[in-house]
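ok trying this again, last paste got cut off
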Amino acid sequence: MANKVTIQDIADALGVSRNTVSKAINNTGILADSTREKVLAKAVEMGYKQFSYANSVSDIIGTATVKKPLVSGDFALFIGGFLDNSHFASTMLDKFQHEITTLGYSMSMHRVTSENIESLSLPVSFNKDRTAGIICVEMFNQEYCEMLGTLGIPLLFVDGPVASYSRQLEGDFLMMDNSAGIFKLITDMKNRGVKKIGFVGESHHCRSFFERYMAFRNAMYLNELPIDEKFCLTHIQPHGTDYFAKLFKTLSSLKELPELLICANDFVAIDIINCLKLMEKSYPDDIMLCGFDDSAESKVMTPALTTCHIHSQAMGYTAANLLLSRIEQPDLNYRTVYTETNLIYRESTRD
């Protein structure tokens, strides 16, 4: 007598999880039609008892076109910090919400407080039972992100904690390209005879700041330019209420300024500009500056700020695709996706 075929047997034959096979056979959860049909075909081929009457998949689902069930569920946005209209994520989230609502999903916003992080607790507004996926923005605490990975819900991090390089999180990552613009800037500056270049911003604040700092160091190395460590202002103070005072003290104590200071983002650049005013210095006369993000402020400042433009709409579209594909194919390997950024020269680098 032949051995009884189990769900695990089918999963092993297809190289997918037992959970995926169960969803397909019982028509539960959210699964791509192609995945469901592949599982059902293998179940028929192997003689799975529930489908002993069937000769093909069409005997199970019928010959008519199968209608996709109405999608219902919520994408929970977890925010670890304040997002105003100048934050690149604001435009990104508008596009993300547009993409998911056309498919029938909704989006709810949940502020993760310091108390939540300390106690590793979920926001009281969060409802796990109706959540189809979680998207995290400004979530830089490794332990809290690890806790979210235990919920068994598709998870997407837009940027993330630096510790996640060595302690992989149970989710996909969406990042902007943090290197190309900085490499181009430093190469162009070398060709203009600029050699004294520094970097400012807490390098361990998040992945993107760390990658921008490493891009600075790598670009200096590849261009055979010396790195003066006194111009690397990367461990001043965690970003918060005391950051500006510590930044001013550090910058004003330098005996000389670099020719160019690359800032971790546009708002760090604005802090530097305010420090320069207190020092009775100005940009780009006394020092050239470059930011990152291409915020609204960078365009209207006088002089305008050289920066790297983030394609927020592309990030929003990509975020939706990453989470939706994770829902449809939960067995996919975790992915890290980068979207394009572009260096934009303005007056702060004498352009």
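PB: full thing came through this time. Residues 180-291 form a domain with the Rossmann fold fold (CATH 3.40.50.2300).
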